[in-house]
């Protein structure tokens, strides 16, 4: 076709036809010249303000509202709107930072980790329904960077004791220590002070001792969100674990029960593949584990030692919570070893109390058996005792106790009946709880409302539970029997014993029969 025919067919001009014949691709569309706006006269002013902010203190830099107010006050810019200034500042501020060499490019650089060399540690908060109550706990995670093998532990707090115990558990599970650095946040358990904008830190004294014991090399990330990107592996691991194993909210009676479930989940996660990796976490860890540094032979004491004084309520104060100890220690100073989930009280080298650590501050945990010696002399204080309420809530003081107590009070009076119950509670120091409950039920059924009768019935239950093949306990010289003989005054109140008297007649068959000697007179 001729050029004239193409022009006529497509309705275009001569130049368009020539350009189409010269190239099969059309020329790029010309950009339209930007239209002017009412903000153009003020753009140099805004640029100058944003440039000055580069060297201004962080908390005294211009906001969009402040820039707009200055334009109104200093330049009488009544013909512009706040939205116009906001849109321009949002586009122009990053450009000015980049031109000054201070801009941050939001890009992630892929990293390659050597086997057994690097790891990451972090805490994350989780919600758990503990003993019927929703509480906030803390998930500790230790993750090897090469294999992705992670070990988790849940604690009631994120303090230094939990930080240390999480490390000890993770290193024992992994079977070694990374040869390179371990990345950490600037958490208080490890860092006492951040020195400026550098990587230098003033470490907590006990954390330095812990690192030296295990040979850990710490790498501290930058504060804020930038530091979170420096250990993104464990940050994402905590989120993944929380979504996949802690949804819905787990319901447990104790944290020990929950941690047993977490150990099982960690073992099952070894069969998982991370994204498009060709092998599983367990297969990578099998190759990585022999490269870890062996653990030290001696363990590290992760608990924190304190020496509180026992007050007149037979309580000690530890981390703003109160715990009971035996009343014989009132006025004395005891040693307390505080762990992440429990605390142990020592009098010298003797362990005198062990409590589960309280989560909330200002709470109290009392054990009824710590007050029994005082209650023997003050039986009237038992009905309203706080320790009794906590024992009922924990299931240690059962309805059988209450039924036996009411019957004893009805038979012996308020004071003597309560004192008899306290003597029964003292038996729990020598008898298992289930045998004592059986003894109370048997004594209540027969109407034997004395502590000695309960002890007798409890001993019968213990003997019945013992198998026929169980060897008898030897009685060594100087040892005392578990139960003293019943006094006559107590035996007088016991119901009559209608059992037949014991007989040894069946042993006669073991005697050898001898003929009588005729010479014997």
Helix content: 25-40%
| Major β-sheet annotation | 6 strands, mixed
Write down the Rg.
40 Å
Number of strands: 15
Write down the overall mean pLDDT: 87
General shape: elongated
Give the low-confidence spans.
475-483
SS-derived structural category = alpha/beta
Distance between the termini: 164 Å
Helix segment tally = 18
Share of residues in strands: 5-15%
Give me a quick take on this structure.
The protein is of the alpha/beta class. 38% of the residues lie in helices and 15% in strands.
Task: Give your account of this protein's structure.
The structure is a single chain. The chain has 18 helices and 15 strands. It has helices at residues 3-10, 14-22, 43-53, 64-75, 82-99, 160-174, 205-214, 225-229, 232-245, 255-268, 281-288, 372-377, 386-394, 399-412, 414-426, 433-446, 451-465, 488-491; strands at 119-130, 133-144, 150-155, 181-184, 191-194, 201-203, 217-220, 251-252, 304-306, 315-318, 321-324, 335-338, 342-347, 350-356, 364-365. Strands 1, 2, 3, 4, 7 and 8 form a six-stranded mixed β-sheet that branches. It has a four-stranded antiparallel β-sheet with strand order 9-12-13-14, with no helix packed on it. Helix 14 (399-412) packs across helix 16. It starts with a helix and ends in a 30-residue tail after the last helix.
């Amino acid at each position: 076709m001729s050029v004239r025919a193409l022009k006529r067919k497509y309705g275009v001009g001569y130049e368009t036809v020539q350009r189409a014949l010269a190239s099969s691709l059309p020329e790029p569309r010309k950009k339209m010249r930007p239209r002017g706006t009412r903000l153009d006269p003020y753009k140099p002013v805004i640029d100058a303000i944003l440039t000055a902010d580069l060297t201004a203190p962080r908390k005294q830099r211009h906001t969009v509202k402040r820039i707009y107010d200055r334009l109104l006050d200093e330049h009488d810019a009544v013909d512009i709107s706040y939205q116009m200034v906001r849109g321009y500042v949002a586009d122009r501020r990053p450009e000015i930072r980049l031109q000054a060499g201070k801009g941050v490019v939001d890009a992630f650089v892929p990293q390659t980790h050597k086997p057994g060399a690097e790891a990451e540690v972090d805490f994350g908060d989780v919600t758990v329904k503990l003993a019927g109550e929703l509480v906030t706990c803390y998930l500790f995670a230790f993750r090897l960077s090469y294999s992705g093998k992670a070990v988790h532990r849940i604690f009631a707090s994120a303090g230094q004791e939990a930080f240390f115990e999480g490390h000890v558990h993770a290193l024992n599970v992994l079977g070694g220590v990374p040869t390179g650095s371990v990345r950490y946040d600037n958490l208080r358990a490890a860092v006492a002070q951040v020195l400026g904008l550098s990587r230098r830190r003033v470490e907590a004294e006990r954390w330095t001792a812990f690192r030296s014991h295990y040979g850990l090399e710490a790498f501290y990330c930058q504060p804020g969100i930038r530091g979170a990107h420096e250990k993104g592996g464990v940050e994402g691991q905590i989120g993944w674990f929380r979504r996949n194993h802690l949804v819905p909210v787990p319901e447990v009676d104790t944290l020990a029960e929950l941690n047993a479930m977490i150990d099982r989940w960690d073992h099952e996660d070894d069969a998982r593949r991370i994204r498009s990796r060709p092998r599983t976490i367990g297969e990578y860890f099998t190759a990585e584990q022999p490269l870890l540094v062996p653990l030290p032979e001696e363990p590290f004491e992760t608990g924190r030692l304190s020496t509180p004084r026992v007050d007149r309520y037979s309580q000690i104060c530890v981390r703003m919570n109160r715990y009971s100890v035996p009343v014989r220690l009132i006025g004395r100073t005891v040693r307390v070893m505080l762990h992440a989930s429990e605390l142990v009280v020592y009098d010298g080298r003797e362990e005198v109390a062990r409590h589960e650590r309280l989560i909330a501050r200002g709470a109290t945990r009392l054990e009824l058996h710590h007050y029994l010696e005082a209650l023997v002399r003050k039986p009237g204080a038992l009905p309203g005792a706080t320790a009794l309420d906590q024992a009922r809530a924990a299931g240690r003081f059962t309805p059988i106790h209450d039924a036996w107590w009411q019957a004893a009070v009805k038979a012996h009076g308020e004071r003597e009946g309560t004192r008899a119950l306290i003597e029964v509670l003292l038996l729990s120091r020598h008898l298992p709880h289930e045998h004592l409950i059986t003894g109370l039920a048997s004594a209540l059924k027969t109407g034997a409302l004395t502590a000695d009768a309960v002890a007798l019935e409890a001993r019968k239950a213990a003997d019945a539970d013992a198998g026929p093949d169980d060897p008898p306990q030897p009685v060594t010289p100087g040892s005392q029997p578990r139960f003293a003989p019943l006094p006559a005054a107590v035996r007088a109140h016991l119901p009559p014993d209608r059992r037949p008297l014991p007989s040894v007649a069946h042993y006669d068959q073991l005697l050898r029969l001898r003929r009588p000697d005729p010479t014997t007179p």
